[in-house]
Amino acid sequence: MGLTGALATHLVASTDLPAFTAALDDTGLDDVLDKFARPTATSTLSELRTHVDSAFAPGSLTEIRTRLHERESEWAQTTLNQLDTASPLCLRLTDELLGLGIDDDLEGCLRRELHAATGLIRESDFAEGIRATLVDKTRDARWSHPGTDAVPHELLRRLVQLSPDRTPTSPP
């Protein structure tokens, strides 16, 4: 299933895929799904959905942080700690992509996200995050911007800009 929506409707174990595929040749899809689909467990995200929705309601990153500070829960504190260690560029980029995605369809959102990711790997924060997390395992990244307010708007625009025909512009 999708994290919060309907990107998938059924779960079929990877070990069952050969038999699932073979059964499709002989039986209708609904019957095959009835036979092979497994129930999914309730996710932690679905249990926290109300908290996530209210903390991450529309607004600036500063407003989101304020709402998290106002909550006295382990989840809110853990979330704040994660935001404190994240790349300010990536936080602003995520915020920008979410804002632009409101008026776009899934295909447009995925195109824009691919374009942004392609540009992001050229930024120093990408290599710095890999160094701090995977190479040295120190989690002491030194990001290129001291905070989200210091990320230049022009950089964000370049990372998310699609051409009028909704294809990525030249590599960001």
Automatic annotation (TrEMBL):
Query: EC?
Result: 3.1.2.4
Q: Which residues cross the membrane?
A: none
Q: Which GO terms describe its biological process?
A: L-valine catabolic process
Q: Which residues form the Enoyl-CoA hydratase/isomerase domain?
A: 7-158
Q: Does the keyword Nucleus apply?
A: no
Give the EC class as a word.
hydrolase
What are the protein's GO molecular function terms?
3-hydroxyisobutyryl-CoA hydrolase activity
Q: What keywords does the record list, in alphabetical order?
A: Hydrolase
The record ties this protein, via InterPro entries, to:
ClpP/crotonase-like_dom_sf, ECH_dom, HIBYL-CoA-H
The reactions it catalyses are:
3-hydroxy-2-methylpropanoyl-CoA + H2O = 3-hydroxy-2-methylpropanoate + CoA + H(+)
| Superkingdom of origin | Bacteria
Name assigned to this protein: 3-hydroxyisobutyryl-CoA hydrolase
Species source reads Prauserella cavernicola
